[in-house]
Design brief:
single chain; mainly alpha; 10 helices; 79% helix
Length: 187
């Protein structure tokens, strides 16, 4: 039952944000009592925390799988960008705004997760690309990792702009060798 509550509530939060969804709405959606929700979660904040942890751990697991399975850092970077874009497109921006405004402890956890993602997944990709001669050696890797995460989550002026930003960013990382590989990969 706990996993069902998390799954259904995650969909509601991703669609509508956190603030607009009450525990009564969750119980009604699931066809259970509010008391049943409280059997598994001590409060709405506890539910929000567990959902966000689940969602972020899933995202980290997927990015680690890409990093582990794709040995070409450039191809891996493109897949990681796609995953970040997909996350942005499937999560209502109010979800994170609501968490930031109403759940400061959970927001701190989210910020720590972002730092971990930057320091593990994105920096590892950048360092591997430099090591393989695909990315420029003059990169400020820490800044580029931060910029990568930020740009992948930007609000964009029209559909498809995410892909243009992704390709522009990745091309800016590349050496001549990397660019040649990139051009073959894109065809």
């Amino acid at each position: 039952m706990k996993e069902r509550i998390i799954t259904e509530t995650r969909q509601l939060f991703n669609q509508f944000g956190v603030k607009s969804i009450r525990l009564e709405d969750i119980a009604q959606q699931l066809g259970i009592s509010k008391k049943t929700v409280y059997q598994y979660f001590g409060s709405k904040e506890d539910l929000v925390r567990q959902i966000l942890e689940s969602q972020l751990n899933e995202s980290l697991h997927e990015a680690n799988a890409i990093h582990d399975q794709v040995t070409n850092p450039m191809a891996s970077a493109l897949l990681i960008w796609d995953r970040l874009i997909q996350y942005k497109q499937t999560v209502n921006p109010n979800l994170l705004r609501d968490i930031q405004r109403h759940y400061p402890t959970i927001w701190t956890y989210f910020q720590s997760f972002r730092t971990e993602y930057i320091n593990t997944i994105l920096l590892a990709n950048l360092r591997a690309g430099v090591g393989q001669g695909l990315y420029r050696t003059d990169l400020d890797e820490t800044t580029m990792a931060w910029l990568w995460l930020e740009q992948s989550q930007w609000d964009v002026p029209h559909a498809g702009a995410e892909l243009s930003i992704k390709h522009h960013f990745v091309r800016g990382l590349l050496t001549q060798t990397g660019l040649a590989l990139y051009e073959r990969h894109r065809l």
